[in-house]
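note to self — DONT lose this again. spent like an hour looking for the file last time. sequence + predicted structure for the chain T wanted, 253 res
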Amino acid sequence: MIRFDVEGHVGIIRLDRVEARNAINSEMAEGIEAAIDRLEDDDDLWVGILTHEGPVFSAGADLKEIAAGRDETLGTTRGGFAGIVARERSKPLIAAVDGHAVAGGTEIVLACDLRVASTTSKFGIPEVKRSLVAAAGGLVRLPRVLPPAIAMELALTGDTLDAARAYHFGFLNGLCEPGDVISEARSLAARITANAPLAVRATRQLVLEAPGQSDREGMRAASAAIAALAGTDDYAEGPRAFIEKRDPVWTGR
């Protein structure tokens, strides 16, 4: 149900429960968590891409499991729903969507750091249409990446947002033709892996924490991050490569 491929410093996680529109059941949730564990634990992997097989990224929770009263099996202790929405991570994760990602599918996408999609993709949290509430992060994260009025519209109507409009509002980092989404994600990942991986992870964490901080608190946290990097090999390699007029060779150490 979950495939994991390695391409250089990039780990590619693929949802592969095509017959059920990649709906999340217990096996999918555990598989996604295991894939994130592998990404996090491998020092040679610096960026992850989360994508899918089939025409649907994910239809969200498996409603058959919910109807049977097995809601708790759709997540994990560490990761929450789908093994990802509440998971603490250190490495950037890019969602690559080439089809619909609705309900929990949108919430999985929102749990990623960056998002690219094809022009035929759609997003939405239609839970209100089924007398449910988007409880896996959608109501918290959607207003952070969309204008508040648009986020409220999607939440209350349960309507979908097409990829072109999502890109217009800044929900997506990249928009491409159908079939090109992995290439788009690889291109974005390459731009990230060109940089020092430890600095990237520290910077990601600082950006995530910034909304709850004052300017002074944020700058103090950034200074602490620099101090933590100061003893690493890559911290010395960056300036050295600049002086020697060559590309840096990062090791992640």
